[in-house]
Amino acid sequence: MVEILLVVGVGVAMFVGFNIGGSSTGVAFGPAVGSGVLSKVTAGVLMSIFFLAGGAIVGPNVVSTMGGDIVPEQHFSLAASVGILFFVGGALLVANSFGVPASTSMTAVSSIVGLGMAVGDVNWDVLGRIVAWWIVAPVLAFWIGGVIGRYIYPWLDARFALESSDGPLLTIDRSRSIPRPALGPGTTGRELVGSVVILAIACYSAFSAGASNVANAVAPLVGSGALSMTAGVVVACSAVAVGAFTIARRTLDTVGSDLTDLPLLAALIVATVASSLTTFLSYIGIPVSLALSAIMCIVGLGWGRATRVTTIPQAVRREKEVPVTTRALTIEEEEKKPRAIGEEEPEDVLDASDLYDPAATGRVIALWIFTPGSAVTLSYLFFTAIFTLV
């Protein structure tokens, strides 16, 4: 019976990891694939490598938190661990059916809390610290994006506009006795440097995804003692690799094509900010949503860019109306040199195409709230019923 439960548990954990690989690969490598820097196969290879690195180096910190700090390890029986993973996998399935990337970390933590409430043993101090960071991290991402959008983004856009030429970035020069790499036809040094930056940030995002998401797939099994930490990391990363080479192809297409709405430079800034926050929080053992930080950074970046139409004194005295919008990142200026804060007009911002759909964003946020809430409720009811019957 134990062996059957273990096989089922590993199977469900791999299902969770498979879905994580599908969604995280698109988030991490979508900009690189969309700009032509990488093929989908190469993206899958790099995702597998750097997700494993993040999962092995930083991931155990989050596994320890979710597998024993929120609810003591003695409550993680193999059956309870399998039940928790079913809730996480089910939440992913529901969210995917709505086309919304659910916060796997929030759902997993909520399912574990449901178990703890059922047995009457939850470390509320640890849980309070986690929930506090769930609130602080998106707010922090918004304001970091806002500051960059208002004071830095236009200058970066003017100096480091990322454009790609047709054909390969690099070729092999065989005109000499020793073949050596050379720039491809039409490739400039600036384009090569930009491509390297895109690749580095994509790998960093994959590392961050591994640091935060390994625990979501295997923390209950590690907490129950059914899997060792090393075995858990291997199981999760193997499943993610399968997802990176299969279902991730669709998310790579989606994120790559969406770059017409979200400029490549903005996407790289968002990836850097969100990945840095996620890696830091994973290092201190906090399970957090990479996607939520990324979306709030997008909103903050666009909002900060839009507020450049007025100076702070003008805003305080209300001398000039500020259009609160995130549609400002796609502005195409006739002159590449950015204008000073206060020199742009509101209509310049409002004429830009939409960066995001407010209705869709509301749907995403609503499901982010609903999914963990329903997970903790259903988990509590399920485990209460089970322990009552036992």
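That was protein one. Protein two is written in the same sequence-then-structure order:
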Amino acid sequence: MQDEKIKAFIHRYEEVYFFAAKRVTAIVTEKVLEDITIEQYQILRYITMYPKCQATWLADICGVNKSAISAMIERLVQKGLIERIRDEKDRRNVFLQSTEKGRQVYENGEKQIQNYVAGYLTELSEDEIDTFLRVFEKISASMAEKERGNGR
């Protein structure tokens, strides 16, 4: 593919992605978050969706180092949204799970996001949505593969 075409595609992608991401972030921040950042909400989301996950897994998923994830986890624990659970067989293993308050914040957030995004998805056919998601997943998988190849 020609460099100019690639450049134009990247420019279009950036404009669409950044606008959409900015709007979803604004909606979540304005209507959902209860004294937590969007990053903390994302961590809460993963912990709620994958109970008893560990900090190292979260750091990998989020593409941050363990100290950054530890700081976010600590803030969520202090706010009563998640809790640490020690493995009874091996106390060195610490698992994370949402508290009842954390699950409520997560569920409220998901409802708000679904209500906001659903209004736009109804303008697309199922095939268009499926195609969009498959392409986005393919790009994501390709990026992850290249990052693994670079030792990240």
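Helices lie at 3-31, 38-49, 55-62, 66-78, 100-121, 126-149. Keep this in mind for the problem set.
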